[in-house]
Amino acid sequence: MTILAFGVQADERPLIEQAFGERRVHSLDVFLNADTAPIAAGHEIISVSVNADLGADVLETLAAGGTRMIAQRATGFNNIDLAAASRLGLTVARVSYYSPHAVAEFAWTLAMAVNRRVVRAARRTREFDFRLDGLLGRDMHGATVGVIGTGKIGGAFARIAAGFGMRLLGWDVAPNPECEELGMEYVELPRLLAEADLISLHVPLLPETHHLIDREALRAMRDDAILVNSSRGGLVDTDALVDELRRGRFTGVGLDVYEAEAGLFFMDKSLEVVADDTLARLMTFGNVLVTSHQAYYTREAVGQIVDATVRNVEDYLAGRTNENTLVAPGLPVPIAD
């Protein structure tokens, strides 16, 4: 049996091919969507990346072609129509856990890069311009950080913040005792937005968190605040963010995700005209740093993702489900993450 893997990055390919061992895997760099779904015909098992389109129409094409199991190499599953998958009798699994340090550390990389104007400084020095004008940052020590979502990743982010000597504010549906031990004070979201010098997002994308950072939330933030999003693009109303940036607000914004990233991120668009006006405007601001959904992309995290994907496939072949199984014949459909 050949497992077809969509959206495989060059660094990821040898890890996937080695991990599956005797079971053959065919790796593709194209992403799964309505146009590429017919490629899966004849493959009982496919694996997909986080930006795969697994809407009802794609799932119907996959099922008609003989696919019975989908192993997603990601934690979030808001891109999957789970009700349609259940109706079609498909088994769908995700990776429910991988290194939270990978994402937390990268969120801090974005925060420090925009705070200390690292990108601007690097561009200047490559041209032998060693002036300091416009590079003034601030100490993180003694500043206030607002952590929105204090699960595994948010908790790891908070531990780093504590190491900087920061005042910790948190917002979540339930407090994390480990964060409370660090001295985190849980507050209502409006207060966190108003008081935090740095705000970092670590909540899943759910209907109730879509555009959690909307126009009202952005206007509640301090004019010199730093905003970091390494979770899901849909948490931030990007049009509203652009409007606030045009007003000269915020010390910096670091975005590893974008709400319309599908069809852009993980691809080379350098020779094309990108028609996304919102993203194009976002890129024009010198205090904004956009990266291509790479926060998870460490050797340790990708290795854990691949290992979990292999286990999901092995359990499917053995007729078992595990904690990563989202949909399988006979199982209820979970709430989207």
TrEMBL record:
Gene3D superfamilies: NAD(P)-binding Rossmann-like Domain
Keyword NAD: yes
Location of the D-isomer specific 2-hydroxyacid dehydrogenase catalytic domain: 8-325
UniProt-recorded Gene Ontology molecular function terms: D-lactate dehydrogenase (NAD+) activity; NAD binding
Record-stated family: Belongs to the D-isomer specific 2-hydroxyacid dehydrogenase family.
Signal peptide (residue range): none
Organism encoding this protein: Streptomyces alkaliphilus
Pfam families noted in UniProt: 2-Hacid_dh, 2-Hacid_dh_C
Keyword tags: NAD, Oxidoreductase
Protein name as catalogued: 2-hydroxyacid dehydrogenase
SUPFAM superfamilies, per the entry: Formate/glycerate dehydrogenase catalytic domain-like, NAD(P)-binding Rossmann-fold domains
Domain D-isomer specific 2-hydroxyacid dehydrogenase NAD-binding: start-end pairs: 109-295
InterPro entries membership: D-isomer_2_OHA_DH_cat_dom, D-isomer_DH_CS, D-isomer_DH_CS1, D-isomer_DH_NAD-bd, D-LDH-like, NAD(P)-bd_dom_sf
